[in-house]
Write a structure and sequence with these properties.
The chain is α/β, with parallel strands linked by helices and about 450 residues long. It contains 18 helices and eight strands. A hairpin with a 2-residue loop joins strand 7 and strand 8. The protein is elongated.
């Protein structure tokens, strides 16, 4: 993947990555990109509610609806259709209050309210005459109208949305005689992202505007990968940053989501993932997901429907250890018998002598699949490596020489070649042991 995204970047493609393990730190530094690590002191932040009128569309409503439901209900909950509808209505009303302001119901809205509330009041007040019920309902509508008119939105943020939505939620439930919604649960689940909450910054501080000019961005979210509440939400807002970038920039764009994609592979997010794939194509962009666990592929209908069916390119590394249960993978990925024969030749051939770091990969583009060799020089290997000893040795070279990342790699690899040590790790261990440049 380091090799893939490096080549994409060299072809004038803007790259955005969501990573959980520092896999792209070296490449990001070499390319002079932006490496953003999530920490409690400095979380990844954005204000997804802050948009101008031209950005207000059904896609933005869907994103915010998914975001609010994710916070309120979690990623695994089965959400009733009524709650989808209510959250969508609150978001529409929120922006209407900001862009237009609400003063009174339209004649059509008043007529619908009158019918809904009259029917509800008639069932509950069987001892009252129709005229009495009608008078009571009309007074109730006046109260609801005044309460809604009092709801003002002066600025767009999660904080102002929370303030607006709590009152508006109760009003919508009253207007439609809905009694199944727990206001206290809604409030409790959203409060951590509200004023004074543990995660207040995440949805209330504007995203760094310079990110839209960066051509290589890595969001490192390893620190929160075990946080079942926060992890999917942060992954989702990073995806929205990419969507904004995708719309603004004219060149090709790619979003690569490493293991973080599992956080959003839920029934709630399935439609949004499909939307992301399909919308990306319209803006000369594409999306890739990466996993090291084959069970992630075969164990989820969401993955199959939302990800695999929308992926025109499939890359597989050595699958020999999954040979006994490959039939299921073959079926889900739509592999042919010929594809499978090719896949099981990966790294089996005697073709590595005299080569630099070398691995093979099966790549299927559309209906055509072949095995390719990925051979990188030592300089690239040292840029990509996640081996701690190797990274520490390279940092020592950079620190001692007080030079750029590329110059440090060149000096390191020159000494490595002259050392006669074939294995990178063994050479790195010698550098670390001696604690200085070898200057061979």
């Amino acid at each position: 993947m380091n090799s893939v995204v490096r080549q994409l970047h060299e072809q004038n493609t803007d790259v955005v990555m969501v990573d959980t393990g520092n896999s792209y730190e070296g490449l990001c530094e070499y390319l002079g990109g932006k490496y953003i690590s999530y920490t409690e002191e400095k979380p990844i932040t954005m204000n997804p509610f802050k948009i101008n009128r031209s950005e207000y569309n059904i896609e933005k409503i869907d994103f915010l609806k998914n975001l609010i439901l994710l916070i309120w209900k979690g990623s695994d909950a089965k959400i009733p259709e009524i709650e989808f509808r209510i959250v969508e209505q609150i978001i529409i009303d929120y922006y209407d209050a900001y862009f237009n302001g609400f003063t009174k119901y339209t004649d059509e809205q008043r007529e619908v309210l009158l019918k809904n509330l009259f029917a509800s009041a008639s069932r509950k007040n069987t001892n009252m005459s129709p005229k009495e019920v009608d008078e009571m309902v009309r007074k109730q509508i006046e109260v609801l109208e005044k309460r809604r008119a009092a709801l003002k939105v002066s600025e767009l943020s999660f904080n102002s949305f929370f303030d607006y939505s709590f009152d508006r939620l109760e009003q919508i439930c009253t207007e439609n005689d809905i009694t199944t919604i727990s206001y206290s649960t809604y409030s409790t689940m959203l409060q951590p992202f509200y004023k004074g909450g543990a995660y207040e910054k995440i949805l209330n501080e504007n995203v760094d505007s310079t990110l839209f000019d960066e051509t290589f961005i890595v969001f490192e979210v390893d620190a929160i990968k075990e946080n079942k509440k926060l992890f999917p939400i942060v992954t989702l807002i990073i995806m929205d940053v990419f969507l904004q970038k995708m719309r603004l920039k004219k060149n090709r764009k790619v979003l690569v989501i490493e293991e973080a994609w599992k956080a959003i592979a839920s029934p709630l997010m399935a439609e949004y993932i499909k939307y992301l794939y399909k919308t990306a194509r319209k803006f000369w962009a594409f999306v890739g997901v990466v996993t090291q666990e084959i069970q992630d592929i075969i164990g989820s209908e969401i993955v199959k429907e939302a990800i695999i069916n929308n992926s025109d390119v499939v890359m597989l590394l050595d699958q020999s250890k999954f040979k006994e249960r490959f039939d299921e993978i073959k079926k889900i990925l739509g592999l042919t018998d010929v594809d499978c024969k090719k896949i099981f030749t990966i790294n089996r051939l005697e073709n590595k002598d005299g080569r630099a770091f070398f691995r093979e990969v099966f790549i299927r583009r559309g209906a055509v699949g072949n095995v390719f060799g990925v051979e990188e020089p030592r300089e690239c290997y040292m840029t990509y490596t996640t081996e701690r000893a190797e990274k520490e040795a390279l940092k020592l070279y950079k620190r001692e020489l007080r030079c750029s990342h590329q110059e440090a790699i060149e000096a390191y690899c020159r000494d490595w070649s002259k050392s006669g040590i074939s294995k990178s790790l063994a050479f790195a261990q010698r550098v670390n042991r001696e604690g200085k440049l070898l200057n061979l």
